[in-house]
Write a structure and sequence with these properties.
alpha+beta, Thrombin, subunit H, 6-stranded antiparallel β-barrel
């Protein structure tokens, strides 16, 4: 049976089954202190169990126009474990009528006090979802100046999440379970958010064949898969309510992203870890049952039998010729989160397979394929004690793509290859010499570049930069250095001009690299120049090299590149030398 037919059969089954589990609702106005009821959740394996509770009261206006039902969980088991992560979404009933989803707890609480999101709020926000996510809609993105994002990307850095994440999301209830503890570098990408990563040790994980997943009904375990494949990053919770193909869960936001698409899977609870801070379930994801489609303040909603569009990421790691690894992942496709998950995946993959300390050199090559555009070439070289800079570079490039305000990119895939060597291939620019400081137009200017490696050995390279006959007579600057140093020569990114996703792709593909040395001749002239305008045939990514001499914003006298040359060194190069010459 084909995959699509399996989904159709599952959908018909779940639609029929959901009619049996529909629940009558008890309105918020009818709930009183002292009422007792029962909730449903999974404590171990796939079996749905009940827990008892007593209503303490209604906490009004916990958010504008919203109230929370406060309850106390009863029984010795709940007193010992308290309210634990993974219970979120547990349906709570009084006299058999559904009142809402258990959604909040209190850290370090001595009593198992919890909050319930009233079911009316969940129904209002979560039932009206599309059967399929809309792909070509105007983007609502962080207030990020596109030139700033591009400048960051082509400089090999990533904008921190704390600058991108909405202020209110820092109190998010997001819970991400992983098959292994995240490295400090990978975890650093999530600083400033409410996302917590918990270590569900691999030794406790069962394969999909070994585990029996929780039934798809209120109280059953459900998992939203954010990254699948050779690394599992997922958020586990509990099903609250089912109507037709719609599944409501969590009772609180995952990230409060609105519309999204990630696989919705069943789950198997491996156990509950009691913790003085906050206890939590260890959950192993099971089979795919549909797609999470909507993420709002009152909970998360999914559709049964729907497939999710994710971004495939393929990663090959060459460990100095001794061993080759081929890793495969599928990631969430979202304009804000995709860069951070990609950086996390790359960082975690490197941390797991290369040494964390010591001299090493990492060469990254590959491409990012977008529908309708040429592949974006990925190339970086890092000679460092850790690998985070490669992950920063990949995340920065993806931010430039995802944060563009022009159109939603359609990712076809990301392919990367990394070669790791246990040596430090790093050289610094020592000097640049020229034979004459008064070259003529129409001639080539010979240049000798000297670099020094980490062992102190010096090497010299000879190259020449052609001076066109169209060059003006007079003062000219020769810039010799690596791509990132040249890009950092002018912090003003306002002169990077973009008007489409195609411009972003072109800029990324023409950006200067840190494993090449460049020689650029820069001259002041009236008319088209670097400051605020493009020059035909010159990458826009180097359009902001030098400010006007008086430091003003006057664009009447602009800088333009009249000649360029590059020297491939196949190592990381650092440094910049500027020489002044007089063109005759």
């Amino acid at each position: 049976m084909s995959k699509s037919n399996i989904f159709k059969v599952l959908t018909l089954f779940f639609v029929a089954f959901s009619l049996l589990v529909s629940q009558e609702i008890l309105p918020l106005g009818d709930i009183r202190s002292g009422m007792r009821g029962q909730g449903k959740t999974v404590f171990l394996g796939s079996k749905i169990d009940q827990f008892d509770f007593e209503v303490l009261g209604i906490q009004k206006n916990t958010s504008p126009g919203r109230s929370t039902i406060l309850i106390k969980l009863l029984g010795s088991q709940m007193k010992e474990m308290g309210v634990f992560a993974g219970m979120s979404g547990s349906p709570c009933y009084i006299n058999g009528k559904l009142i809402g989803a258990l959604s909040t707890g209190f850290t370090f609480s001595k009593e198992p006090i919890a909050g319930i999101t009233p079911i009316q709020y969940m129904l209002d926000q979560l039932l009206q979802i599309p059967d399929e996510s809309v792909q070509n809609t105007p983007l609502i993105l962080p207030k990020m100046d596109p030139p700033k994002v591009l400048k960051s990307a082509i400089s090999g850095t990533m904008i921190p999440l704390s600058e991108v994440w909405p202020e209110g999301s820092k109190d998010s209830y997001s819970l991400v379970l992983t098959g292994t503890a995240l490295s400090s570098d990978a975890a650093s990408f999530w600083q400033g958010s409410g996302v917590r990563f918990l270590d569900a040790n691999n030794s406790f994980m069962m394969t999909n064949e070994e585990q029996i997943s929780s039934p798809i009904e209120p109280g059953g375990t459900v998992v939203a898969s954010l990254v699948e494949g050779d690394l599992d990053l997922s958020s586990a919770g509990t099903i609250t309510y089912i109507r037709g193909k719609r599944v409501l869960m969590y009772g609180h936001p995952l990230f409060n992203l609105g519309s999204l698409q990630v696989p919705m899977r069943s789950g198997n609870v491996l156990g509950v870890v009691s913790n003085l801070n906050s206890s939590f379930k260890l959950t192993a994801p099971g089979r795919t049952i549909g797609s999470v489609m909507l993420d709002r303040s009152s909970g998360v909603s999914g559709t049964l039998g729907v497939e999710s569009k994710m971004i495939p990421l393929r990663l090959g790691i060459n460990l100095g010729g001794r061993k080759n690894l081929n890793l495969s992942f599928n990631m969430i496709d979202h304009p804000v989160l995709t860069p951070y998950f990609a950086a996390t995946v790359l960082s975690q993959s490197l941390e797991s397979n290369i040494r964390g300390l010591g001299m090493q050199s990492l060469s990254l090559q590959g491409n990012i394929k977008l529908a309708g555009y040429p592949p974006i070439e990925i190339e970086s070289f890092v000679a460092d004690l850790n690998s985070k800079r490669l992950s920063d570079y990949l995340g920065g490039v993806l931010q430039a793509i995802c944060f563009n305000p022009f159109e939603k990119p359609k990712f076809e895939g990301i392919s990367l290859t990394i070669k790791a060597e246990e040596r430090l291939d790093l050289s610094a620019v020592v000097s640049a010499r020229i034979l004459t400081s008064r070259p003529k137009r129409g001639s080539s200017l010979p240049v000798t570049l000297t670099v020094q490696n980490i062992q102190g050995l010096r090497e010299s390279y000879n190259f020449s930069v052609f001076i066109p006959t169209s060059a003006q007579k007079g003062k000219t600057y020769l810039l010799v250095g690596d791509g990132l140093s040249i890009m950092s020569a002018d912090p003003d990114q306002s002169s990077i001009q973009i008007g489409s996703l195609g411009d972003v792709v072109q800029i990324l593909n023409s950006s200067l690299k840190n494993n090449l040395a460049y020689g650029l001749l820069v001259q002041s002239s009236k008319g088209a120049g670097l400051r605020g305008d493009r020059i035909e045939g010159v990458p826009p990514s180097i359009a902001s090299l030098v400010n006007p001499e008086d430091g003003s914003k006057n664009s009447s006298l602009k800088r333009r590149i009249i000649g360029r040359s590059l020297i491939p060194l196949e190592r990381e190069v650092q440094g910049l030398v500027t020489l002044e010459i007089e063109v005759e």
